[in-house]
Amino acid sequence: MPDFDVAVIGAGAAGLSVAAICSGLGLSVALIERGRMGGECLNTGCVPSKALLAAARAAAEARQAGRFGLRLPPPEIDWAGVRAHVQGAIARIAPNDSAARYRGMGVEVIEAAGHFAAPDVIEAAGRRLSFRRAVIAAGSSPVIPDIPGLDGVPWLTNETLFELEEPPGHLVILGGGAVGIEMAQAHARLGCLVTLVEAAPRIAPGEEEELVHPLRAALLAEGIALHEGARLARVEQLEPEGPQAGAGVVLHLADGTRIAGTHLLLATGRAPRLAGLDLPAAHVAATPQGVRTRRDLRSVSNRRVWAVGDIADPEGLGPRRLTHAASQHAAVLVRSMLFRLPGTRLDYAALPRVTYTDPELAQIGLTEAEARAAGHRDLRILRWPLAENDRAIAEGRPEGMVKLVATSRGRLLGASLLAAGAGEMAGPYGLLIGRRLPLSALASLTLPYPTLAEAGKRAAGAFYAPKLLSPFTKRVITLLKHLP
Ligand SMILES: Cc1cc2nc3c(=O)[nH]c(=O)nc-3n(C[C@H](O)[C@H](O)[C@H](O)COP(=O)(O)OP(=O)(O)OC[C@H]3O[C@@H](n4cnc5c(N)ncnc54)[C@H](O)[C@@H]3O)c2cc1C
Ligand SMILES: NC(=O)c1ccc[n+]([C@@H]2O[C@H](COP(=O)([O-])OP(=O)(O)OC[C@H]3O[C@@H](n4cnc5c(N)ncnc54)[C@H](O)[C@@H]3O)[C@@H](O)[C@H]2O)c1
Question: What is the side-by-side strand order in the sheet with 286-287?
Fold first, then answer.
């Protein structure tokens, strides 16, 4: 008899979901965690970043109160208070993810590093744990780019950023993906100088281009310096000697630009935490992107092993490093690993993603470029600008847009939203795409007035407007009006 029905490596969003479900269904579960329970999302990812952004938004709103006719003094940033809010948010959520809570559920929580010792054995805390099924949920860590001089300067990642006891005077951020952009705006609003350096031709490279332009304008308007399409030649200390030695960094771009800052944040992507797992001992195949799995998240090379969350590299899809993707993985795992339902397949067609800047940028399904690259020819592009939305005008936030990408038959392929709180509007689009509902389902929905969500309904309505107002419809109405 194996020691455990299920052994899970990693107690982040993915591993915790799997452990809770398996134990809830009566299986014996070992949950192995070498760091902090809750993993990246709780401790160094989603929660602290969103808490910092919330503090930053409050500061920005205080500064912008003049547009409502209010006279407020400029906000004073109490960094210790901001940190207390961030740490308080983590502390408030932490009990949900705690070892005590999981032990209470009957899970054996082992607080140590784990690694495979055989195809059906994991070693942790000096114990050999045999298992029926193992789930690898070890997550990802920040990529440290290979840049000349980087080993001679201090740098931050998301793992250290939220521990700063003083605000950075001038934060230089390398990488303009979700982490880079969110942290750029948060720190700029909290009174820091911020410079963002992105290697790709534009920030948020994978996002809907049409909506990235106004987002970029919003970031520039807040004083963030952007260098896009930048090639970094080398990095050095600002002051190698003297009283301030080691206090700052200088970035030299290939075009000769020199950027001096007090702190350097690396936000250049993620790499799977494969090191230390000893995957070869269990014949578990991996790529540089993560553990190779089939679409049901089962390892391609060891039938006892599954992978979920940031570390999973499902074939044909690749990793999606998002907390709600980890939840989706756990749901797939229940069907494939526990109920053994044949044909269970992970599908990202309706997976949302949100960059929590202000305004927020939300994407559900395909961008226009992705839809075209996927071979969709006869696309209908539908837009509704927030400048035409009563609520956005009343709120004084008319920037942004809803853009829908649909087939000529009215099936939604993707929705891109740029609006304050756009993430809160994402749900219905996922439903439409996931359930393959026609756009009329959104166009005919009665939404409360005035809401930003109406912009999406208006965009969907634009699909039917030409048909509704066609000469044919007008002739039908003319005929019908003569009926008693
Ligand atoms: C700054 C930032 C902000 C983010 N914001 C968002 C957001 O707003 N929304 C969103 O959806 N996603 C966001 N993400 C992504 C999100 O944090 C991740 O997708 C999510 O945390 C992945 O969960 P996971 O369980 O796969 O991995 P992790 O949370 O990394 O958990 C893996 C765990 O495994 C442990 N582990 C690793 N190796 C071993 C071993 N050998 N033995 C024992 N334990 C081990 C680690 O210590 C870790 O606790 C953000 C990420 C960052 C960096
Ligand atoms: N709101 C959210 O949901 C949220 C927030 C933060 C992070 N995340 C997740 O965390 C993951 C990591 O985010 P991230 O922003 O670090 O990664 P990312 O891959 O999204 O972006 C990294 C960026 O760095 C750039 N880059 C890479 N090397 C560079 C270099 N040497 N110089 C300059 N630019 C360089 C890339 O072109 C890219 O734009 C993402 O997969 C994301 O899904 C999600």
Answer: 286-287, 290-293, 312-314
